[in-house]
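Need 3-hydroxybutyryl-CoA dehydrogenase's 3D structure for a figure. Predict it.
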Amino acid sequence: MSEVKTVAVIGGGTMGNGIVHVFAMNGFDVKLVETKQEFVDRAMNTIDKNLSRMVSKEKISEKDRSEAIDRIQPHLNIPGAVMEADLIIEAVPENFELKKSIFEEVDKHAPDQAILASNTSSISITKLAAVTGRPSRFIGMHFFNPVPVMKLVEVINGLDTDEEVTKSIMSISEKLGKVPVPANDFPGFVSNRVLMPMINEAIFCVHEGVAEPEHVDQVMKLGMAHPMGPLRLADFIGLDVCLDILNVLYDGFKDPKYRACPLLVKMVDAGKLGDKTGEGFFTY
Ligand code: 3HC
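Structure prediction for 3-hydroxybutyryl-CoA dehydrogenase:
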């Protein structure tokens, strides 16, 4: 298998800019694809701010920061960004039709030997792979927010993913200083199949009047040593994203244990989505 040197990341939002950050910091050439110049600027500013914070904490040098920034090449269209890439990682919102149209375009323009990966948190890797002509070179590479800090990469094998591709992605994840953990393609994989029912149950505790949000979170932080309580974490992830993932679990398994709490549905309907809207279970 040829070595991966150039990586294209499609999407510069929270996850995308974090993924670009870690690849650039670890010596890869990175092509960042966004749809508008203002989104490119926003992603680059965030990456620069996060790298500068690492410089001020003396975790990296100023030279490391500027070299990482220089390795990032922004693009406003997919063909130019992927035509020389060895690995293409999609990190756009959790919408199957959007991801499908992106992968169809990527598949047309990426070199035959390139690996295609999705950072999806719950959409089937097998189903995404099937929209391309290379399902054996398609894989899930699931990062966690904040990407520069969280150690895990959940590596998800689709039905047809080639073993060599899995090995290559595991080894690239290690080069990023991450710990890759393999999983097979089932709704929510491991991470969200375990995390989302916990978050949902915490919301049911509030819904049924068991405890106030801050008390639910205190129990899990102080009693279970979680760095964030489940409701703070739900706000951080985005309540809309939590609801989408629960719906994927519910639809995928047809099991009522994944039924989203009506309070979560109501909060999403009200536009209270957590950190990104300034209000969720807590205010920001
Ligand atoms: N980039 C770079 N560094 C960052 C950062 C970022 N975006 N955000 C935080 N950091 C660094 C800080 O600089 C700090 O560094 P230091 O240890 O050198 O001082 C360190 O991370 C800790 O940050 P803070 O001191 O600001 O705050 P906390 O100690 O409260 O930690 C946290 C913040 C790391 C977010 C911690 O609360 C945490 O681990 N929370 C849980 C996060 C989690 O569970 N994420 C997974 C979400 S699920 C997901 O992403 C999957 C999806 O499919 C839903």
